[in-house]
Amino acid sequence: MATRDREIRRSQVIELAPAQKRRQAERLTEAAPVLAAAYGQALGRWLGDPVLRLVGRPIITECYRSAERQNELYRQGRSMPGPIVTYKRGGESNHNLGPPTPALDVAFQLADGSVSWSALLLSKFARLMKYADARVVWGGDWPSFRDRPHFELLSAQKGGPGRE
C-alpha cells in the first residue's frame, strides 16, 4: 500500500519537460546562493503538500536580467503594448546585479501547460519563501507597486523595496 501511495503522489506532481528542467536549473544558478536555497526549500515544501502540488508547480520565470532586457520590460505599458510590469530602468533593478543576482520572479506551471501569475498562489508561495529564510522579501508586500512574482534578498535592496 505504501508503494502505491507514493506512486499516486508522484503522478500528481506537475512534471516539467527535460528542456524546462534544464532551464529551471540554469535560472537557479543565476540566483544568489541564499535566495536559491530559500527557493529550493519552498519548492520542496510546495511539492510535498498533497493539495498545493495539484494546483500548479512554481517555476522561475526570470532571475538575472541584462540592462537591455530591463529596458525592454520598462517600455512595456509605455511605448510598447501590455501592462506596466516594472518601474526600474536598466541598471536600477536588483535583477541587474550579478549574476548571481539577489532577485528572482516566480509563476506557476499548470497541469494544462499554461503559466499563471495567480495572486493567491503567489501569496501562498511567498509564505514558504519567507519561512525558508527571513532575509527574503516578497514584492507582494510592498506598499505601492505590488510586484507579486518578485522575490529578493533584504540585504541586497539597491534602491529600496518596491516598484521593481
TrEMBL record:
Superkingdom of origin organism: Bacteria
Gene3D superfamilies xref list: 3.30.1380.10
Molecular function terms from GO: peptidase activity
Domain Peptidase M15C: 91-153
Extent of the signal sequence: none
Protein name as annotated: Peptidoglycan L-alanyl-D-glutamate endopeptidase CwlK
The organism of origin for this protein: Hymenobacter psychrophilus
